[in-house]
Amino acid sequence: MKSNLVTVNAKIMKIRTIKYKAPHTLMLCLLLSLISCKKKDLLYQELPGIYINKELMTGSRDSVSYSFAEKENNRLLDTIFIPVRVSGAPASVNRTVPLVVNPTTSTAISGQHYTILNTVVDAGAYTARVPVVLKRTADLKNNQVRIYLKIDANNEFPQLITNTKTPNTTNGNPLNIYTNVFLIKLSDQILKPDTWDLSGSWFKYFFGAYSAVKFKFIIDVTGRSVWPPYARYGENAPTSSQMDIYYSKMVTALYEYEVKNGPMLDENGNQVTFPKL
């Protein structure tokens, strides 16, 4: 009888143990699940950032040389647009683009040589273009000034992105890695276009080796002071037929100059010539 009673009590204790253990186990599982979710939120929540979208730049992706001497004489202002792109999800409100000038490396004076216009990334958008207004001043006739642009972190874009990678890859590696700064070299002097010697450039094909004397001669003879990248891309770019006409004009004008004055020499003492096409 005693043995049976012990057996019954043991069964009751076992049942009780199972009965009260289950709720505690369930609560423990739920708690661990919540902690796990919070950890995942912390691990995968990406702070918003913004960067200069150099994939959209034509020609040199890190800098551009701008000279008012290549423009019309009455042009006192011009604008360069800097494309930017948001990293992360779009927002439900407008956000200010924190494009600024690095004062330690720049020689241009804000308000005198340039003005950066306040720009926002519209709600729901990923991209924007920041206008940098360039100003023609007397000192640019003898000096070239530099405007080093960069992105600073702010409250709306706290994540500072120092490098971006091209989406195109070779063997899994990005073709290009871009720093998040951009240089504008500003003057009112004849400067070599950044894309003169690059592959596919019509500058090099139709006009040959660069010199400041030759380029000024080209501007005067053709009457074209505004040249797009590579002399062939962008707004109001000349067609190949127009470039053929420009080439013929240059060859004829150089011949007429040499008949009257002898060989034209550039700033380095080299004779100005044009390639035979």
From TrEMBL:
Write down the InterPro entries for this protein, in alphabetical order.
Answer: DUF4843
**Species of origin:** Pedobacter steynii
Report the superkingdom from the record. Bacteria
Q: What name has this protein been given in UniProt?
A: DUF4843 domain-containing protein
